[in-house]
Specification:
The complex is a heterodimer of chains A (315) and B (96).
Chain A: H1 8-15, H2 18-33, H3 37-43, H4 62-77, E1 84-88, H5 94-101, E2 106-111, H6 114-126, E3 133-137, E4 150-156, H7 165-175, E5 176-188, H8 200-209, H9 218-227, E6 231-237, H10 239-255, H11 257-263, H12 267-283, E7 288-295
Parallel strand pairs in A: 1-2, 1-4, 2-3, 4-5
Antiparallel strand pairs in A: 5-7, 6-7
Helix pairs in contact in A: 4-5, 7-9, 8-12, 10-12
Chain B: H1 7-22, H2 44-58, H3 76-92
The chains are: A alpha/beta (315), B mainly alpha (96).
Domain Carrier (chain B): 8-87
Keywords (chain B): Phosphopantetheine, Phosphoprotein
Pfam families (chain B): PP-binding (PF00550)
Chain lengths: 315, 96
Amino acid sequence: MTAIAHTRAEREANLRSAAEQREHERQAVAAHYEHDPEIFSLVLDSRLAYATGVYEHAGEDLETAQARKYARIAAKLDIRPGQRVLDVGCGWGSNLLYLAQHSEGVFQGITLSPQQREEALRRARAWGVADRVRIDVCHVEDLNLRPESFDAVLFSGSIVHMHNRPAVHQLVGEVLKPGGRVLISDCYFPVQQRGDRDSAATEYIFVEALGYCRLIGLAEELQLMERAGLDILHVEDLTRHYAQTLAHWIDNVRKHRRTIEAMAPGFAAVLQQYMTVARMSFARRTALEYMILATKGAPTVDPGAWPIAQKGGRS
Amino acid sequence: MDGILDNDLILARVRALIAESVRQPAASIPLDARVDGSELGIDSLALIKLMVRIEETFDITMPDLAATDAAPFGSVREVAALVAREVAARQAGGGL
């Protein structure tokens, strides 16, 4: 499949060899996440999820919304004792460590940032799950894994940084055992052209602030997953929730602007600026946020049995 | 930023920040030019950056650009008046 390039950064990526692009992602993507974790701890929830929460109502706080998201991912992946989980782009370990604490699974995370690895391992030790958690600094395409060796693979806010999506989905299709699940929570462009994808604002968020991002259409992602032998089980829109999450992050940047500036001059402005671009994009639905669940072979979870909140029956 | 900020000083500072954003001398920025229109050549990213600069400079919170009912920002003079109201509110609130 010849992918359509939506942005200048993507067109440039298409001119690189696969190896050159991997090297580019290693350098460019890691830079943002190499900032002191202390800065992110002032902006994000206590587990440092750098991804959307799930809100039940407008007045809810960030911590509650992220807790609901962790529980939702845990329910969707349904990790049984001894099952093996791969978290691709595990960040500071938000989901990986939550899952380790709430299951008896065995966990392997990868990140491009040594700072993130160190912080995640520090937390794993503090929370008593280090014996079931391994984290490596590694690009996903450099992973050398046995076929059918994992029960679940997670990408939370990470696949957007990966240019070579067919290779990534092929890898997932190969390493999952029959009955294995893959969950992706990330950002997509609507198929209908809305907004200017070559604007200074898009370039700012995708390149200057975050190194390298490639937004594709949801259907393109789903098709690549299906071609890798995965069956789509469930897709939900979290666009509104991301706009709300970003509002909390922006307020936290404002609240701690001076502390952040003292630790990394200029970074508070970068955070507030890119987060405002992102918030406006989600609010206007020029970018969309989806959580996708797929399975290899017969599913072990049944989305048809999941509750849908009753009208007026908010708990 | 501390001390007494009168409205003329705020207008001058806001105008200087806008001038910096479009890389023009402050004197060439008409006070009645719309900040969020094409008149000054401030695109959506430049507008976001300008709002962040204003928040940093005056230690205030500017209106949410993503709000569905967001009002347009208006002229240089109107933005300065908005900043002056926010600064006054902060000072009355016993803030910094």
